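Per your request, structure below.
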């Protein structure tokens, strides 16, 4: 069985006074050695967090695809790695939407991060219109077709996060059957792209995961963990989700 990964996405939350909460999450997570736990933080907080919780996986939420250059306000993979990050999210729907990131760009970001040795959580997911129109699976597979790197190289890990856009921060989640159908389809796509290695890649579910629904979600086949937004900000909300992943 694949070890589950529970990653928190702090989005644009967190200043230096929140390091105490990061410490509480890191220390609390030690009770669950059967689960991999990570926090993806605002880039400006990464170094401070890495120093505060050595050994705990801290990541970024985005990375630029270029090595360096005239890209005002952006962070390269090398910069993330240099700050002590071990992983990064790419292709979150909030960036695909607000920053108009294309599948091509997301793929280039994933390649840049993996190339420097950062683990990658690559997000995909459909809008409510698409879900209601009955083409969620095709839409997500098309997104992955364009966003996945052509090959897995080196030692860094690629994970996929299926995050239906309409479930993010809304308290709504797809049915168990819908999650199972989508994760099975994503597994098929990973095998098609990467062969046998695609069986081992973790597929996370994200969108309104909380302590009350986590155990049920983690029991679904091909759900290998979760990407958690709002409920990752406080140890009291996040650690029960980590505990559920260890059941
Ligand atoms: C997210 O934005 O990655 C997310 C899953 O958010 P939430 O858990 O708040 O729905």
């Amino acid at each position: 069985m694949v070890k589950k990964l529970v990653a928190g996405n702090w989005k644009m939350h967190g200043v230096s006074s929140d390091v105490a909460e990061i410490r509480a999450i890191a220390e609390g997570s030690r009770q669950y050695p059967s689960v991999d736990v990570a926090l993806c933080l605002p880039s400006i907080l990464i170094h401070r967090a890495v120093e505060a919780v050595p050994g705990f996986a801290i990541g970024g939420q985005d990375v630029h695809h270029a090595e360096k250059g005239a890209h005002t306000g952006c962070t390269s993979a090398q910069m993330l790695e240099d700050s002590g990050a071990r992983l990064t999210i790419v292709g979150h729907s909030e960036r695909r939407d607000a920053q108009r990131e294309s599948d091509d760009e997301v793929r280039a970001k994933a390649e840049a991060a993996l190339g420097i040795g950062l683990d990658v959580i690559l997000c995909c997911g459909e809008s409510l219109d698409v879900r209601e129109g009955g083409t969620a699976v095709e839409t997500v597979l098309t997104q992955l077709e364009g966003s996945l790197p052509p090959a897995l190289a080196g030692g860094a890990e690629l994970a996929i996060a299926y995050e239906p856009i309409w479930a993010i921060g809304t308290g709504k989640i797809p049915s168990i059957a819908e999650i199972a159908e989508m994760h099975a389809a994503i597994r098929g796509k990973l095998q098609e792209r990467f062969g046998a290695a695609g069986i081992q890649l973790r597929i996370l579910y994200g969108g309104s995961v909380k302590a009350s629904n986590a155990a049920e979600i983690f029991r679904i086949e091909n759900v290998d963990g979760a990407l958690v937004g709002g409920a990752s900000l406080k140890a009291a909300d996040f650690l029960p989700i980590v505990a559920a992943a260890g059941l």
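The beta strands are 4-9, 35-40, 57-60, 87-90, 119-124, 158-162, 203-206, 225-228.

Regards,
D.
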